[in-house]
Amino acid sequence: MLAQARWPEPGDGPPPPLPGFLHSPFAPLVAAVAGRCLDRRPGGPAAAGTRCAVVLVSAAGDRPSATHVRSTVAAGGRVGPLFFFQSVPNSVAGQVAARWGLTGPVVCLSPTGDPRADAVAEGELLLYDGDADEALLVLIDEAPDATPTGAVAVLLGGGDSQ
């Protein structure tokens, strides 16, 4: 493990807004914890040419946005165009990759067992297969109603095993 971060940590409020994403805490939470973890990478940013995968793990995805879209459509309302973009979890994973210049694969998982074990297994597979040199794992904690409440991010490097 090269680095790890949580959101929230002591002193944190809600994550900062994320341009292009609205209504839901899901995308800002992913971006905030990913950025915090990448900032903690020993030695600073990865060397040029390092391929870093992004693995986003969430049991429900962006449920607040999905609920908003469903209720707006059911009421005969018009859904704003940003909801089509942000309704797919890989849109925020792609935003993280673009923001940080990460050039590895982007993978989104809905865990079938232990979320951390599923994330580590996917990250290790990407490293082992040579698809990436590092893997940024982002796991979203959710309340029983699937509202995002927190997140953890872990940066794995080649040869790591958790």
UniProtKB/TrEMBL annotation:
Organism: Micromonospora wenchangensis
Region feature (Disordered): 1-20
Annotated Beta-ketoacyl synthase-like N-terminal domain residues: 48-145
Source lineage: Bacteria, Bacillati, Actinomycetota, Actinomycetes, Micromonosporales
Top-level taxon of origin: Bacteria
Signal peptide extent: none
MF-aspect GO terms: acyltransferase activity
Name by which UniProt lists this protein: Beta-ketoacyl synthase-like N-terminal domain-containing protein
